[in-house]
Design goal:
It contains no helices and twelve strands. It is mainly beta.
Length: about 140
């Protein structure tokens, strides 16, 4: 995977609504639905890049101009279905790292941020996992 270039609807296990919060979006920002988001020092959200503070996942796609103050609902906790390559059933509980709004792995390159842990494999031969996550947006 790579940084997102289009909306990517995600599946959530159970009811993700308790972790749904409203955030302001940084100016001049394009956010894609389903993308991992960073929480900035001013409390706004923007697409996640390596080393950021993980806030959660975008509920919708949005593009802002040079103004601020646009609101976006963000899933700040829950169990999200993500494609995690090279994972097996024995990996349950392993940390999952995020490097861009669309890149997730079990390996820390040194500056990656933990977004959660592997919770449940979709099927025995699948690389799709539910990841139990909690972003800084919920703290």
């Amino acid at each position: 995977m790579a940084a997102l270039t289009k909306d990517t609807p995600r599946s959530y296990m159970g009811n993700a609504a308790p972790g749904l919060r409203l955030f302001k979006v940084a100016a001049n920002t394009t956010i894609y639905q389903g993308g991992a988001l960073a929480k900035t020092a001013t409390g706004e959200v923007s697409p996640f890049t390596d080393g950021d503070v993980f806030a959660g996942f975008a509920s919708d796609g949005i593009k802002t101009d040079d103004s601020t103050g646009v609101d976006l609902e963000v899933y700040t906790e829950g169990k999200i279905l993500l494609n995690i390559s090279a994972s097996t059933a024995s990996a349950i509980g392993t940390s999952v790292y995020v490097t861009t709004d669309g890149d997730f792995s079990l390996t820390d390159s040194g500056s990656d941020t933990v977004l959660g842990v592997l919770y449940h494999q979709k099927s025995a031969s699948s690389t799709w996992w539910y990841v139990d996550f909690k972003g800084a947006g919920n703290q």
